[in-house]
């Protein structure tokens, strides 16, 4: 059974930091590209960051470049999103996504709220 389970969301003040984690199981994680998406309230889901299966190629949406870092640990089947200098517009449900060949796996999401 494929599972992606996100954790680490919560309430943070502007300028603060959070680290999201995603635990993967049920598929060959080390061969899978991984992505973080987010869906702000009332908006479409948008791509935040991607990382290749080896962890050497990372890409970011312009709105998070220089503030967010995606990483992975293939020994632990984990992917992370370090979010620094957060802004109110980062408020969203954040989703972990795994891509392997024609398969596309999703987590249930974790809420991040940036507010005073």
Give descriptors for this structure.
116 residues, mainly beta, four-stranded antiparallel beta sheet, 0% helix
- Distance linking N and C termini: 40 Å
Fraction of residues in β-strands: over 45%
Query: Helix count, per DSSP?
Result: 0
Radius of gyration: 13 Å
Shape: globular
Strand count: 11
The structural class is mainly beta
Taking all residues together, what is the mean pLDDT?
97
* Order of H and E elements: EEEEEEEEEEE
Largest sheet: 7 strands, mixed
Q: What's the helical proportion of residues?
A: under 10%
List low-pLDDT spans: none
3D architecture notes:
It is built from no helices and 11 strands. The strands form 2 sheets. Strands 2, 4, 5, 6, 9, 10 and 11 form a 7-stranded mixed β-sheet that branches. Strands 1-3-8-7 form a 4-stranded antiparallel β-sheet, with no helix packed on it. It has strands at residues 3-7, 10-12, 18-25, 33-39, 46-51, 58-60, 68-73, 78-83, 92-100, 103-106, 110-114. Strand 9 and strand 10 form a beta hairpin. The chain is 0% helix and 53% strand. It is mainly beta.
